[in-house]
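DM from R.C. (forwarded with permission)

"hey, sorry to bug you on a friday — could you get me a structure for this? deadline for the figure draft is monday and I only need the backbone to look sensible"
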Amino acid sequence: MKDIEVAAAIIRKGDEIFATRRGYGEWKGWWEFPGGKLEPGETPEQALVREIREELDTEIRIDKFLATIHWDYPRFHLTMHCYLCTLLTDTLRLNEHEAARWLGRETLTDVRWLPADIALLPLIREALEKEAG
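My reply, with the result:
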């Protein structure tokens, strides 16, 4: 089975999380956290900054490592390094995705997440609840 290693940004703004809907490929129409594949020699953090610049035409600050998710899809094994991030600019342009939404704790499950991304939802809720106090 093919191995794919990616980095994903859980972008926070207040008590909401940014989600994107895939506009291409086998999983078109499913929701995910933005990010992408690591290139040879890149750290997950470097890949994430580059991918967010390419996908969303914006800059982020990586605040904290959240988790690494391992997931077996039918055609590949995914290793996804996930980071809590903050936008450094207010500009967001969808260069690869067909839609995007800001989701709060109560609306996190309102979209059809990719299977690997679903595993992050309890960790995200916990992080948002800690910040809310």
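R.C.: lifesaver. The chain is about 20% helix and 45% strand.
me: no worries. The CA atoms of residues 24 and 97 lie 8 Å apart.
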